[in-house]
Each structure stands twice: as C-alpha cells, then as structure tokens.
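May I ask for whichever protein you like with its backbone structure tokens?
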Amino acid sequence: MAIGQLEGHRKLSAKIAAILQEVRSSNATHRRKLKEILALRLSSPAEFCAAFCEALVPLFNFQRRNSSSERTIKFVSSFACSSSDKDDSGDEFLENFLRFLLLAATAANKTARFRACQIVSEAHDMEVSSELWDEVIECMKIRAGDKIPTVRTFAIRSLARFANDSENRDILELFLEKLPLEQNGDVRKILVLSLPPSSETLSMIIDCTLDVNESARKAAYCVLASKFPLQSLSIKLRATILQRGLAERSAAVAKECFRMMKDEWHEKCCNGDPIELLKFLDVETYESVGETVMSTLLKAGLVKLQDGQTLREFIAPGGDSAEEGGNCSHSIELMDAEVAVFWRVVCRHLNIEAHKKGSDAAMTMGTESTVYAEEASHNNDLLDRILPASVSDYVELVNAHIVAGANYRFVSRQLLLLGTMLDFSDVSNRKVASVFLQDLLHKALDHELDESGNEVIIGDGFNLGGEKNWAAAVAELCKKVHAAAGEFEEVVLNVVEELAQPCRERTADWKKWLHCLAVVGLLLENTTSFRHMQGNAIDPTEILHSLLLPGAKHSNLDVQRASVRCLGLFGLLERKPNEDIGKQLRCSFVKGPSTVSIMAAKALLDLAIWHGPDEMDKVMNCNLSSDIHDDEVSSTLFEFGEGHEDSNFELLDLLCVGLEHDWDDLEEIEDHQSIQDVLGEGLAKILLLSNKFPGSHTSKHHLILAKLIRLYFSSDNEEFQRLKQCLSVFFEHYPSLSINHKKCLAKAFMPVMRSLWPGINGNAAGSTMMVSNMRKIAVQASRFMLQMIQAPLLAKDSTSTEENKSENPSVETCLSLDLESEEEGLAVRIAVEVASFDAKKTAAEKSYVAALCKILVLLQFRVSEQGVIKLMRRILSRASAVVAAEKDLTKELRHMAEHLKAIDRNPDEQLSSEQASQILEKLELTFNLEKDDSTEAAPTPAPQSIRPRPTRRRARAHKDSSSNDEGSPTSVVPNTPVIGTRSQRASKTAAMSKMAAKTTVKIDEYGSEDDEDEALAEVTSEDDSDASV
C-alpha cells in the first residue's frame, strides 16, 4: 500500500514538473496549463501540495534571474491565487503552500529565501486567514533586513501592499527607517515605490531626488507624478522638484521629470496652459525655475500661441492713460508676473531660433538652405507680430509698469529684458530709447522711513535701483541701444558727471552719493577697458580721486561700502595695481565696520587673484621677506579696528590674520556669506591658481593650506556650511592639478597635526570627552591629507614630471626630483617628528606620537629612492626607540623596517652624511643623525626589577627579553656587518647561554649598561643577519 502511494506521489510530482517545464517557454501557455494543474489539484487534493512543493525545489536552487525562471514564478503565483468552485481544496493547499514559503524564507540558502520572497511578492490575491497573513507579514519584516539585497527587495515588495493600511503602521515606520540607511540602490528604489502618499513620506521622497543611484531618483519622480497631485505640494516643493529634475545629469531621470511635468501638471492640472502652470510656481520668487520650465516646454513644442495673442493686446490704441501721472497716448493694461515671464522667454526663444536657422541657411546650400531661411523668416515674422509695433509703444508699456509701483517692479524688469530684442537701427528709435534710458539712470534710489523716523534705502544700497538684476537689465538695454564702440561709456559718463558735481562740491547728501556710486558701479561692471572712457565728460582718474577715494572715507557706512565695491571694480580694469586703491582697501578691511570689511575683503581677494599677490605687495612697497617662516601666522601683529595701519604687512598675511579674527559683530551680506566664507574661498582660489603666481608668496602657501584644513576640520565651524562645501570641492581637485600642490600639502601635514592635537605645541585640552573628540578630528584630518597626497596627478602634470626625469637620468641617486611631493618625503617628515621626542613623554605626547606612527606605516616607498630608504632606516631606529613601550606600534614599525631592509639594494652600505644632509635640506628639516646613532637596540619595553631573582625565573625573564629584542624594529641595521652566518637555532642557543651566564642584573638609573647593551645588540644583529640569509 505504501509503495503504491509513493509511486502515485512520484507520478503526480512528475506531471507537475512537466507543466512547470512547459510554462518556461512562453506566457501564452499559462492559461491552458493553469487549467491542467487545477485539474491535477482536484484529482489528488491530499497529495497535491507535497508533490507541488517537491516539483518547485529545482527552482529554489536556481539563482539566475532569466526570462524562463521569471515566467515560472509568474505562473506559480497565478496558480496560488486561483481558486476552484468545485470544492474547498484550494484553501487548504494555499495555507500549506504559504507555510512552505515561510519555511523557505527562513532557510540558510540565500536562493531559497530569495525565491520564497519573490513568490510571496507576486501573489497579491491570496485568500487566507488573518492569522496566516500576520505570520507572512512578520516573516517579510524580518527578511527586509536580510543581508542579501535581492531578498530585501522582494520582502519589501511583499509588504508594500500593507503599507497603506492604518492598522499596519509599523510597516510604514519600517520603510521610513530603512530608506536612509539602505546601501543598495535597487532596494532604495523599491522602498521609494512602496511608500504611500502622506506628509511624512513626501519629504523622504523628495530627498531621494538627490540619490546617487539613477533608478532611485527616477523612482522618486515616478512616485511624485502618480501619488502626489500638483495642488498637494507647496510652492517651494514644486520649484525644488522641477529645479532638480529638469537639470538632471541623467537623461532617463530628466525624461521622467519632464513626463511628470507634461502629463500630470501641464495637461491634467493646467489644461495645457503654460501661464497657468507658471502661476503654481511663483515666478517672482523662483524666476529661474519658471524660465527653465518655459524653455523646456518651448523646446518640446508644447506652447501653442493663439491667434491675436501678442504683447500688443496690452497696448490699446487711443484713450487716456490708465495710470495717474502718465502722459502716454495709449491705454496700457498692466500684466501679471507670469505673463511677463512667458512673453520674455517666448520672444527670446524665437530670437535664438531665428539666428540659429539663419546661420544654418548661410552655412548650407540648395534646398536645405532654403528651408532654413524660411524657418528663420517665419520666426522673425512671429517675433515682429508679438513685440510692440514701435519703440514708443514699448517705452509707454514699460513706463506704465514702472509708475504702477513696487508691486510691478518684477514685470518692469522683464519688459526691460524684452527690449533687447527690439530693432534700434533707426535713429528715431534710438533717440526715443536714449531718452528713456536717461530717465532710468537719473532715477534716484527709493527710500523709506524706519521706526525711528530715519531714512533707509530700499534694496542693497549699491546697485542701480537697489537690485542687481535691475541694474543688469538696464545695462543690457543701454548696451543694445548704444551698440557703437565707446558710445555706452560716453552716455553713462555724461550721467556720472552730472551726478558727481554735488558730490565733488560736498553738497550732496548720502542718498545722492549712493545714486552716483550706483551709476559708476554699473559703468565699471559693463566696460572692458579704460580706453573707452578716455576723452569723455569725466576722466577715470577724476572718478577715482574725486568720488571713490573720498566716498570710502564718508561718514555714512552705506556710502563707504558702495565706494569700496567700486574701488575693487576699478582696480580690476587697471593693467597694474594702484597704490592708492591698495592702501584704501587695506585700511577699510582693517579699520572699517563689519559691512565695509567684508566688501573690502572681496575686493582685495579679487585684485590678488587678478594681478597676483606679489604685484599687490610691490606696489605697496612691502618687504617681500615674509613674516611667516614658522608654522603659524601671528594673529597678534595688530588688532582689527585699531586706528593704525601697516602698509608693510603683506597681503596674504593680512588675509590670514583676518581669517582667524573673531568677527562677532559681523552681519551676513546678500549672498548669505560671512567674512570667513569670503576669505576662505578667496584663499582657496589663490592656492588653486598658485602656478600663475610665481614669487615669494609660494613659500607660505603650505601655511595657508594648513589654516584651511584646520578650519575645515574644526569642531566649531558648523555655521560655515557654505565654506565647508566650497573647501570639500577645493580639496578634491587641489592635489591632482600640480606637483607643487602636493609639495605644499606634504609641508602642511605636520603644522596641521601640531595645531589640531590637544596638549601639544601649547594647544588647550579640556575634559576627557573633549580631548577624545579633538584627537578623533586630528586623526581624521591626517588620513584625509594622506588620501590627498596619494591622489594621482592629472596626465599633463605627470607627463611633465616624467619628462624632467628623462632629462635628468640620475633617478637612482638619493635625491629625487619629486621627493617633496611623494610619500617618501612625508615619511621622512613624520619620522623626524617622532624621533624628536624623548623616551619619557606626557600622555598627550604619547597619543600624538602613536597617531603619527599609524600614518607612517601606511606610506609606501619606491625602490628607486635608495637614498631616502637608507635615511629612513636610520631615522626609524631612533623613532622606534621613542615608542618602544608601545608593543603594537613597535611591531608595526618593525614590519616597516623589515620592508625597508628588503627593498634596500645594499643594506650593509651606510648613507653618507653629505647625502643625508642633502635630503634633509631639500625637505627643509633639521635633524641630528649622529646623536646616539651607534646604538641600534631599542630600550627594554618595561624596566627590569633591581631585586635579584631566582635563577630559573631569571632565565625565563631573559628568554622573554630576548624574544622582545628579536621583534624590535630598531635592530634592523647592525652596528658592524656580520660576515659569518649561523642557523637560527644556533644563534638563539648562543644568546641564551650568554644571558644565562649572568648571575645578577644591575640597572643603573643614571647611566647605561654598556655590557648588556652590547650583548643584546650582538644577539639581535646575529638574528637579523641569519634571517636575511
């Protein structure tokens, strides 16, 4: 009977396996085979589940995910969800099958877990008891933390359909917990797709638009499109989503964001109206986003202009002006901000396309050229129909919006930019536009009264109109109207001469000063040379001495700030630095208030980068012998805000002192930058461009770099996030650009470590926790600098280095051309630093030396650097003696010494004093190699007891001491070369016999044990000699 049942079970399992084999080939067979397997289940309900599970075992052992296995999984899931109305065997089978899957999901085999979770994730409509589903959920929650990414992926897919249920709040919390911690990109993608729409998941999904994985970013935009309507998002979130998505570096992600914007936002929510879409984005706040959206829609051909839809519809012929005080001959209808942005971008797009097609027509011939010419003509005709009929109408339109007040200031600026697409070739048109521009340039800055009744300028105070974008729009239109060479400068200088008259006569108030300086700043920003300014109403020299220098000394702080800004712009136009400008900028930086100091710092940095720090100091007659020859720049040379100035103080020294100055009362400027941000970014630019500034200042670049590294790793600079982000980009590129940068980095290593380590070099310490944190930061900085030194050079600089080596074939000598920039030079610096300490050290010194040694053993030596290797072996013996009490460090240094001895081609040959001094002099190091250099044995790690011990115990102690001496790295180089060789066993026997012969051991605390040291040195020398054979 049992044999018959076994045979029936085997046949049933074979039939199921045959069906599963057939469904692998095509999905078309699934419906027919589903009926067959249902019939088998009805014919043998009791034995079917066991046979079915047995037939699935090969699938659970098949790891690859190909099309055939995926078809089988799909068929199994469909069968598990199907039911038959003839009996209730399906329910029993389904419960048994689910328990089989739960068992497989907890198996040790990763493929079995993966297949079980995959089948559960595909089976959506299983009708089982709630208790069994609870078991499935708990199992999948455990599998969501599996170490295999594919198992986690399908476990999360299995849980996704329960995340919307309020009763399963723990599933949503699990997803939110796993998403920021997940390392695999595909798993993060599934997590994002599984998140339900809610306020707490929205921020997490938007954060995923910045994910490093392309599929995760694409999934984030897919979820935003399908689960979050446009109205449910705030204006800031809408702008953030579009700003990131439309500028996406991945074409697939950008396409997904565009699909979301086009299908869900533009078509469904806005009915295909781009102006309506712009209203959802608040273009006055997010102008760049609105401009990008319009440009994208225009390129995709989704903007369709209706008949009669032009700018002329806002200019009604005849009638009185709609605005009081207006003298126009048309009735002007004021437009909204979204409409203004729409027409500006549309007109710009048509103008660009017309020029592009015209250029293509000129570059081609025949029919192709005709087609391009027709397209260009069509775009030009369409642009002419959109723009106002005449320049007079345009001026009336802009004036109406200017008169309308501050609420239409944004629209007025858009219309000013629109004017650059008009034709001003006609003399009458230029005359009308010139009168309009004269009014704009003569228009005083707006002001209001504060709570105390004082007049306050509206805007930034140094740009025309109080806004940088407004001044740029006026300048663009002015250069378009006055396009002839020197005409723009002539027109603006005439206005400057009129405005400067009361300033030179000292009858102007601070508002007139600011207005005049705003026009001067507009001119200096948009001219290219003083050559175009010569021979006009007012000379550049007169502007400098009658406006800018007196304005920098004005009693009003806003006038000082605007004058300092213009001084910086003026200095950039000069071929050589100006002494008067340099003195005034230094004075404003040191003595001025915070708002003036930060503007002076930006001007000084711009001039230093443009002319070079050496040129700036030569003009100031500075003593170019730097005050920075030590590891630190003294910040006590003078005090900021004092009533004196030191013109002999070099520019970089001045900026470095300012970087470390305490600017407590400093306010942020309009770009949300602090004085440390400005100085840090400027000094980083100077270091990055150091090859363009050859001179005396290069000798202090490593100290500036050390300051930036300390500032980057300082624990109290969380408020300088902008500077930290800038420095992170700087450090990423700096070491790879030039070999000189690597030299500078290697020289900066030790100053950074000395300044960061607590309790060293006069550094303050603190509590135990504070000291621990400071040490962690210093270690992190050391590893960061090591990574930068090990970063490869760019191809251009590395090629030049190889050419220098080929021209100087003495590569095998002890002095390498690139020693200062390579790891060998840094290793010598660290070893000298370690060897400079005494054997007795404080706790801070011990930890400092230990940290240096851990970096030292990570450095690699090239076999070609034989001289440095020999020198390093000598210094390493001294360094090993300093850390002899640390067994772990001693062991690591011993391995390093063995490696150096192995790559030394002549280990018995000593490095001459001249060669050693040459290497140390090249590295700018001072180290006495002759001091105690005759002793190679390291001191005993622990002092021996003075009290004599029994012979047996003393022999054991001597044995341990011998073992320690054998592992000491200081015994790598013997005092005298050993000619004869013995076996290792014989050497140990001889050493033990010599040590056992001593009956007592006396330790002289004030002297040296010559006899014992000689014995230990002889033992270790013989052992090393034997090991080298």
About this structure: The chain has 44 helices and four strands. The radius of gyration is 40 Å.
